[in-house]
Every structure is written in structure tokens, then in C-alpha cells.
């Protein structure tokens, strides 16, 4: 596909601009963490008085995009020069090489990292969202409470352990692959990448929604590698400063929600009946 003669006009000082809903971390947060860790400025539309109109303009059914870009269906949206892109993992994969948090776009390793990032979003973002909205996103939580409870019990019993075991194994495999750096806690390669920031944020959201289940797992010493990665990201100086700042928005009615009645523990496996 040709870029076309006018495409990709990018000036060195083109600002990064994030368009996202205000008042909740949601899917905007992993993107913010990349900028924070890299120490790179960006315009956070969610922090302005124009946040809601900016999102509504992007998702308006009359929006036809522009000469380079199709209109997005949903935020987050990133603008950089002539480029306007949506889909969180897509935005992250664009940013990571530019912010020094991933290999260059020409490297196969970027696709290896993207596979991990997509898996984090599958299990610890999209499935978590579906625990409080199992029937439909366009219905209120209050209209799907029994299904949400059933889904949440099922999630913490079988899906959450499956994903945590997987990421634990990925970290162990990374240590084995690179024995010289076996003391590092990361998912892939010898140093922190954007995939680690994404896993951190999605674990944090999971802890917010399923506090009891996550606390029980950590207290039982399970998935030690995963919890060690979480702690290592949290302790990074720029991330720690960000988390303590007013820029870090508290959880609200976004992807990650804390409903006491959904904060459940795994179901015990039924005892096999013995005659
Ligand atoms: N797969 C998309 C999902 C985007 C999404 O669901 N955005 C939410 C906010 S976090 C939204 O506003 N959705 C509106 C809708 O889906 O109608 C992504 O990863 O960016």
C-alpha cells in the first residue's frame, strides 16, 4: 500500500495528543504510563475542560475522518502529526519504539511483544470488563447483575488463574532464555518494555475489581513472578512519582469497577463423590 505523496507529514516537534474520556483511567491509562515512564510530554485531552466534546466529536456518526485517517469507533485515540489511530494495543505498538520502550518497528520482537500485550488485554482488560457487563455493553450493570455475578465467579475460578499462570510462565521462560539476566522480572528481553507497563496497569485494575481474589492469590504465594513484576514497575521512579501525583485518575465507572457483590473468591472444586 502506498503512503501517498502527502502522507506521514511529521515534524520533529509534533505533539502527541491523547483523546479519552475524563474521570477514569480505563484504556487510556496504559498509554499514559508509556509517556510517564519515558518522560515524554503529551497532551492529555482527558485532563481538559474539552474532554467530553473531543471524544464525542471523534465518535460522532457524522465523522468521516480526514484525507489520511478513517474515523475511530471508540476512544482512546492518538494523534501524532497527520496520523490519527485508535485501538489501544495499536496505539501502544506505535508509541513503544518511539519512546524507547520496545524494539524498532522493523524488528520481529515487536510482534512478539504485541502478542503478549494483546493477551494481557484479552484476559485482564476485556474479560474483566465483561464480568460487570456480560450481556451487553449498552445495558446498565444494574440490568445484568445476576449474570455479572455468575460471570465473575467463573472468571476468578478459572480464567484469572489461567492468565496469571500464563504470564508467570512467560516471565520464567524469559529468565531461562537469558540466564545472564535471570534476576530481571520482565516479560520479554533483558529490560523493561511497554508490555510490562501494560501488564502492570491491567493487574492494578484487576486488583481494584477483584481485590479479594487477587489478595488471596498473592498471600498464598501464587504467581510470584507476576506479583514481582507488578512491584518492580510500581517502584520505578517515574511511575512511582506519577502514581502519587494528581495526574493519576482514581478508578470509576470504566473498564475496572469495584462492586462489593462481584468481589468474589474462587469457587472450591467440588469434591469427587466416593462410594
Ligand atoms: N478494542 C478497543 C476498545 C475501545 C473501547 O471499548 N473504548 C471504550 C472506552 S475504554 C468506549 O468508549 N467504548 C464505546 C463503545 O464501545 O461503544 C481498544 O482497545 O481501544
From TrEMBL:
What region holds the GST C-terminal domain?
114-251
- Domain GST N-terminal per the UniProt entry, residue ranges: 14-103
Which UniProt keywords are listed? Answer: Transferase
Tell me yes or no: is Transferase among this UniProt entry's keywords: yes
Highest taxon, organism lineage: Eukaryota
GO MF term set = glutathione transferase activity
Q: Which GO terms describe its biological process?
A: glutathione metabolic process
Gene3D superfamilies associated with the record? 1.20.1050.10, Glutaredoxin
Q: Does the keyword Cytoplasm apply?
A: no
Q: Which PROSITE patterns match?
A: GST_CTER, GST_NTER
Cross-referenced InterPro entries: Glutathione-S-Trfase_C-like, Glutathione-S-Trfase_C_sf, Glutathione_S-Trfase_N, GST_C, GST_superfamily, Thioredoxin-like_sf
Q: Which PANTHER family match?
A: GLUTATHIONE S-TRANSFERASE (PTHR11571:SF263)
What's the protein called, per UniProt? Glutathione s-transferase family
Tell me the organism's taxonomic lineage: Eukaryota, Fungi, Dikarya, Ascomycota, Pezizomycotina
Amino acid at each position: 500500500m502506498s503512503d501517498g505523496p502527502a502522507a506521514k507529514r511529521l515534524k520533529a516537534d509534533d505533539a502527541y495528543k491523547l483523546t479519552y474520556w475524563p474521570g477514569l483511567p480505563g484504556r487510556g491509562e496504559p498509554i499514559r504510563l508509556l509517556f510517564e515512564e519515558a518522560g515524554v510530554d503529551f497532551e492529555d485531552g482527558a485532563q481538559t475542560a474539552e474532554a467530553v466534546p473531543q471524544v464525542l466529536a471523534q465518535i460522532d456518526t457524522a465523522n468521516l475522518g480526514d484525507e489520511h485517517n478513517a474515523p475511530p469507533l471508540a476512544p482512546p485515540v492518538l494523534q501524532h502529526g497527520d496520523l490519527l489511530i485508535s485501538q489501544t494495543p495499536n496505539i501502544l505498538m506505535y508509541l513503544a519504539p518511539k519512546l524507547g520502550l520496545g524494539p524498532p518497528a522493523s524488528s520481529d520482537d515487536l510482534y512478539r511483544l504485541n502478542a503478549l500485550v494483546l493477551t494481557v488485554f484479552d484476559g485482564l482488560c476485556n474479560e474483566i470488563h465483561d464480568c460487570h457487563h456480560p450481556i451487553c455493553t449498552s445495558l446498565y450493570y444494574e440490568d445484568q447483575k445476576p449474570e455479572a455475578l455468575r460471570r465473575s465467579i467463573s472468571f476468578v475460578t478459572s480464567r484469572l488463574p489461567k492468565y496469571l499462570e500464563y504470564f508467570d510462565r512467560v516471565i520464567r521462560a524469559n529468565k531461562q532464555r537469558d540466564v545472564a539476566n535471570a534476576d530481571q522480572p520482565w516479560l520479554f528481553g533483558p529490560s523493561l518494555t511497554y508490555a510490562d507497563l501494560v501488564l502492570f496497569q491491567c493487574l492494578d485494575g484487576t486488583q481494584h475489581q477483584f481485590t479479594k481474589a487477587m489478595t488471596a492469590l498473592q498471600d498464598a504465594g501464587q504467581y510470584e513472578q507476576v506479583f514481582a513484576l507488578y512491584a518492580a514497575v510500581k517502584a520505578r521512579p517515574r511511575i512511582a512519582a506519577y502514581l502519587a501525583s494528581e495526574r493519576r485518575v482514581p478508578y470509576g465507572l470504566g473498564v475496572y469497577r469495584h462492586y462489593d457483590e462481584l468481589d468474589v473468591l474462587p469457587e472450591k472444586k467440588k469434591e469427587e463423590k466416593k462410594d
